[in-house]
């Protein structure tokens, strides 16, 4: 696939996660699901995201350049946990001031995550169209539940219209990141793609283990809810086999 058709296809498919983000905002603005339902859905989303890492990103990385992949993975660890530390600092300072209202720190962190996701999606399309399509599916599920969590925090502090629109506005950063990823990485060497995809693997694993599953467990652990993780993984595995 040449760069221009690749770019058009990638940008067209980013409409799917953007629509998922919009849906999450609308749902939270109208009525947020209860704790147990939210926990089950977050388990499901974590399973899909983890499957995308294990089935698509890591194999694509290791077959290109293992050494560069290790460096990209290490860089991903540093960057993701640096963002976590920054978020913790912002939260502590905000709580110390007794501040309320629009959660700027959380919103900025989510926007950065969505932008990075876009670059990873662009790298996926640069690697192969099948990888790009499957990553799009994973991002759509991710955005549905990350957007839901963000909107739930916004609810009660801002107008309902802001609650509904904030996730989709942030998701537009994914469109920009995807365009940049395809343009910059469309003709990149296998080693460079390996490094970017390895970085993306860390971002996806961090989201699944440190965000979605942590929040899911805080909302209450149930056996049916935990099964959702494995159902999400299995569903992605089936889709991967059908698309490849």
Number of strands: 0
User: Mean pLDDT across all residues, rounded?
Assistant: 83
Distance between the termini: 16 Å
**What is the gyration radius calculated from CA atoms?**
17 Å
Strand content: under 5%
The major beta sheet can be summarized as: none
What order do the helices and strands come in, and which of them pair?
Elements: H1 3-13, H2 15-30, H3 35-62, H4 66-97, H5 104-127, H6 129-154, H7 160-185, H8 190-218, H9 223-243
Helix pairs in contact: 1-5, 1-7, 2-6, 2-7, 3-6, 3-8, 3-9, 4-8, 5-6, 5-7, 5-8, 6-7, 6-9
Question: Explain this structure to me?
Answer:
With about 240 residues, the chain is mainly α. The chain is globular and about 50 Å long. The chain starts with a helix and ends with a helix. It has helices at about 5-15, 15-30, 35-60, 65-95, 105-125, 130-155, 160-185, 190-220, 225-244.
């Amino acid at each position: 696939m040449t760069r221009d058709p690749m770019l058009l296809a990638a940008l067209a498919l980013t409409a799917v996660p953007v629509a998922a983000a919009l849906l999450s905002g609308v749902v939270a603005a109208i009525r947020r699901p209860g704790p147990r339902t939210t926990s089950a859905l977050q388990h499901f989303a974590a399973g899909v995201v983890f499957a995308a890492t294990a089935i698509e990103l890591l194999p694509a990385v290791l077959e290109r350049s293992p050494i560069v992949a290790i460096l990209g993975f290490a860089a991903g660890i540093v960057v993701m946990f640096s963002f976590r530390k920054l978020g913790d600092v912002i939260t502590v300072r905000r709580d110390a001031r007794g501040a309320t209202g629009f959660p700027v720190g959380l919103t900025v962190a989510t926007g950065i995550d969505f932008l990075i996701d876009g670059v990873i999606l662009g790298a996926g399309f640069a690697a192969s169209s099948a990888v790009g399509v499957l990553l799009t599916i994973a991002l759509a599920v991710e955005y549905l539940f990350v957007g839901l969590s963000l909107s739930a925090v916004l609810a009660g502090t801002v107008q309902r219209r802001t609650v509904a629109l904030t996730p989709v506005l942030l998701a537009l950063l994914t469109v920009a990141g995807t365009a940049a990823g395809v343009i910059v990485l469309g003709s990149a060497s296998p080693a460079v793609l390996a490094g970017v995809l390895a970085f993306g693997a860390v971002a996806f694993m961090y989201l699944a283990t440190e965000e979605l599953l942590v929040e899911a467990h805080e909302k209450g652990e149930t056996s049916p809810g935990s099964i959702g993780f494995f159902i999400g993984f299995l569903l992605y595995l089936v889709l991967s086999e059908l698309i490849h």
